[in-house]
Every structure is written in C-alpha cells, then in structure tokens.
Amino acid sequence: MSEFFTVVQKEIYSILANSAELGAVTNGVFDSVPQGTAYPYVTIGEDVFTDMSTDTELINLVSITIHTWSRFSGRSEIKKIQGVIYDLLNRAIISNNEFKFININQVTAQSQIDSDGETRHGIQTFNLILEEL
Asked: What is each CA distance from 7 to 4, 11, 13, 45, 68, in whole angstroms?
C-alpha cells in the first residue's frame, strides 16, 4: 500500500516529462523547481485521495493538480501548454503492474495572473480512479 500514494505522481510525471510535444513548449516538468529555471515550466502539485473501496476492491478517486507557469505577456502561452497537457492526460491509458488506472479526466482548468503582476499561472485538475491489484 505504501506505493499507492506515490504511483499517481510517478505516472503523471512520466507521461508529461517524456512528451516531446510538451518539451517543445516548456523548460521542464518538476515536483520541485530548480532555482534559476526559465519560464515556462510545469509543476505537479497537490493531490487528494478519496477512498472508494468496497469489501472486495481497493479503489481510490485521486484528484491531482497540474500547474503551468509563464511570464509571457498574455495568456496564450499558458493556454497552449494547458492544451498539450489536456491532450496527454485526458482519457489517457495508463499501465502499471500493481495498480489499475480505470479512468483519468480533466475536471477544471483556469488561468490567472499571480500577485507579482507578471507571472501567469495555469491550474488544471484531473480526477483518476485507481484500483490496487
């Protein structure tokens, strides 16, 4: 069960970090952003696990947030990156030997200007249904 809480982040990271299309429009995908990283980039953020288990199945609904960061004037760069992330993750087929990923879909997407007045911040939330085998 201990890997259960890390498998979602590992799988999402693998999909995003290994995407040539996302790599072409960002400077990387991070859990912790190295100091001095140039914009734009993507971070894998918060996750919430909700137990939906039955007597016979160990199932969780997992909500995970993907953050996009840009200093481009306007929101077009954020929206383009969010579109690439959507294409990569929404209804993706994720394979894992210990867990069955039943479904993944985008629930929300937004963009905003951070308090510094120059950083654009995109926020996408994806829900996954995950069963431990």
From this structure: 5, 6, 10, 14, 21
**38: exposed, middle or buried (C-beta count within 10 Å: 0-12, 13-18, 19+)?**
exposed
Q: Is 14 in a helix, a strand, or coil?
A: helix
Are 69 and 121 in contact, with CB atoms under 8 Å apart?
yes
Over residues 61-118, the pLDDT tens digits come to 999 999 999 999 999 999 999 999 999 999 999 988 889 999 999 999 999 999 999 9
> End-to-end alpha-carbon separation of the chain, Å?
10
pLDDT digits (tens, 9 = 90+) for 42-60: 999 999 999 999 999 989 9
50 burial via Cβ count (<10 Å: 0-12, 13-18, 19+)? exposed
The continuous run of DSSP H or E covering 70 comes out as strand 58-70
Phi, psi of 8 (to 5 degrees): -65, -50
